[in-house]
Design a protein that fits this description.
heterodimer, A: alpha+beta, Sufe protein. Chain: A, three-stranded antiparallel β-sheet, 3 strands, disordered C terminus, B: alpha/beta, Aspartate Aminotransferase, domain 1, Aspartate Aminotransferase, domain 2, 2 domains, seven-stranded mixed β-sheet, about 40% helix, about 15% strand
């Protein structure tokens, strides 16, 4: 898909009308993810119940691709176990890096797989992966998420 | 009268396809004469300059030193000893910060810069102030991007040791009153350093007329190759400074414990130099002088005017800096309501328009003007009105591509 098609069919909807943007009351994990060179800046918030992601929200600002990608990610990880979500992040990043091309494997990503063509746009890769990297980091190192959330409060 | 079309044939990259290159403030394009000069150096004069006693090395040295003479004349320096070749403006400013700043700034002193500076004129001074427990003071512009007399006179004081300012802002394009600021700073006993990266390609520079102590610029923004830059410094200051880097080429005599340093300017040019880069810079300056600053200014003003007038018809576009197109040095920094600058740049790229998006290595300024990042279109004398019109047409479509129904 070319860039404008990608915006038109996928990105704009999530950017202009995100389903998961806002501040969560009493999140279990909060972590800020920033792309210092371009200014994408999100704060991802997760509620975890019995090891399963019960809800995911994000606050912040950034380009349409970063915002749409994290919104789509929230759709995909709600209802998944932490381990599953980490694995899915690996799949997403593999896709963006152009390492995973197998459609069957990418099916797991559902709508987020639409960002596959970002792998041909090196300048936008870090926008697309910001949300996923933040989520992976906070689940693998919850102690960091704890620190950040204290600082934010 | 000259027209941009007269020069476009000199730039092979501008004649490939329908790309519109509007990122000249980041780097300019190079004419064939510059690439040819580099090729000729490597094909006909290549040897390590400054050390060999044979013909080729002598020829390489001559070409390298002739480039220094061209640079000295270009910026009105009184001697070639005052011209040091570096990699770029960033390295030039770091050289001053390390070799002059650290030696001359003490606890309680102040270093004055502006909030408009490029990071390369901020970080070295943050380092000096941190090391020496000195205070970093920022001059702030008004809404038109101007540093007023009242502003610099209130912040440059007897405590000020160093004033380091950009000649032309890479975001607003505004030319700062460097000569006036230098005169006042000298009255207060401060040393004046000027970042000329964005000025040297666009306006005549005369370091003696401005009476600045150091002046830094890069070759690549004025059509020379990347990796060659210049630091001008007053001889009296350079002579008393310690070398920035040490090693080969910069010594006179070495024993097991000690060394005496080479004479200026070689004291500051450690290691094998970028001779071909200097030769390319020589060719670029001569080309620039052939085009002439009058034509450059005239063409930049005409294009900037057209861009700003076109943008003003689009109510969702905000332009930063002066409302006077003549004060932009060909730089128009802007935002589009509801569209992140990275998306502006990506969508325009899809239409083969090259503009910069981001914080332009000037995050303190972005914070000051309340923009996370911006988009920037910057023209040079080889751009055309036809390109501006196509750019404006594409710009009109950006919001639609981003899902807005205007």
């Amino acid at each position: 898909m070319d860039l404008k098609g990608l915006y038109r069919e996928i990105v704009n909807e999530h950017n202009l009308r995100p389903s998961h943007k806002g501040d969560m009351e009493n999140p279990d994990l909060v972590l800020r993810g920033v792309n210092p060179s371009c200014g994408d800046d999100i704060t991802l918030q997760l509620r975890i119940v019995d090891g399963v992601i019960d809800d995911a929200m994000f606050a912040g600002s950034g380009c349409a691709i970063s915002q749409a990608s994290v919104d789509m990610m929230a759709d995909q990880i709600i209802g998944r176990s932490k381990e599953d979500a980490i694995k899915l992040a690996g799949t997403f990043m593999g896709m963006i890096k152009g390492e995973i091309k197998d459609d069957e494997e990418l099916e797991e990503l559902d709508e987020a797989a639409a960002l596959k063509d970002i792998s041909h746009m090196p300048a936008r890769v870090k926008c697309a992966v910001l949300g996923w990297k933040t989520m992976q980091e906070m689940l693998e190192h919850p102690e960091k998420a704890g620190e950040v959330s204290t600082e934010n409060q | 009268m000259a027209r941009p079309e007269d020069f476009r044939a000199d730039f092979p990259i501008l004649n490939k396809g329908d790309y519109i290159y509007f990122d000249n403030a980041a780097t300019s394009q190079r004419p064939s004469v510059v690439v040819d000069a580099i090729r000729d150096f490597y094909e006909n004069a290549n040897a390590n300059p400054l050390r060999g006693l044979y013909d080729w090395s002598v020829e390489a040295t001559d070409r390298y030193e002739n480039a220094r003479k061209t640079v000295a004349d270009f910026i009105g320096a009184s001697s070639t000893e005052e011209i040091i070749f570096t990699r770029n403006t960033t390295e030039s400013l770091n050289l001053v910060a390390y070799s002059y700043g650290l030696e001359n700034v003490s606890e309680g002193d102040e270093v004055v810069i502006t909030v408009m500076e490029h990071h390369s004129n901020i970080l070295p001074w943050q380092m000096v102030c941190r090391e020496k427990k000195a205070k970093l003071v920022y001059l702030e512009p008004d809404e038109e991007g101007v540093i007023s007399e009242a502003e610099y006179k209130s912040k440059i004081t007897d405590k000020t040791r160093i004033v380091s300012i950009g000649h032309v802002s890479n975001v607003f394009g505004i030319t700062n009153p460097v000569k006036e600021i230098a005169a006042y700073a000298h009255e207060k006993g401060a040393t004046v350093i000027v970042d000329g990266a964005q000025a040297a390609p666009h306006i005549p520079v005369n370091v003696q007329d401005m009476n600045v102590d150091f002046y830094a610029f890069s070759g690549h923004k004025l059509m020379a190759p990347m990796g060659i830059g210049v630091l001008y410094g007053k001889k009296a200051l350079l002579e008393n400074m310690k070398p920035f880097l040490t090693g080969g080429e910069m010594i006179e005599y070495v024993t097991r414990e000690d060394a005496t340093y080479a004479e200026l300017p070689h004291k500051f040019e450690a290691g094998t130099v970028n001779a071909a880069g200097a030769v390319g810079l020589d060719a670029a300056i001569k080309y620039l002088q052939k085009v002439g600053f009058d034509f450059i200014k005239e063409q930049e003003d005409a294009l900037t005017k057209r861009i700003m007038e076109g943008m003003k018809k689009l109510p969702y576009i905000k332009i930063y800096g002066s409302s006077d197109y003549k004060k932009h040095s060909g730089i128009v920094t802007f935002t589009i309501d509801g569209v992140h600058p990275h998306d502006i740049s990506s969508v325009l790229n899809d239409d083969h328009v090259c503009v910069r998006a981001g914080h332009h290595c000037a995050q303190p300024l972005m914070q000051f003007i309340g923009a996370g990042s911006t988009a920037r279109a910057s023209v040079y004398f080889y751009n055309t009105e036809e390109e501006v019109d196509r750019f404006l047409e594409h710009l009109k479509n950006v919001r639609a591509y981003m899902g807005y129904n205007d």
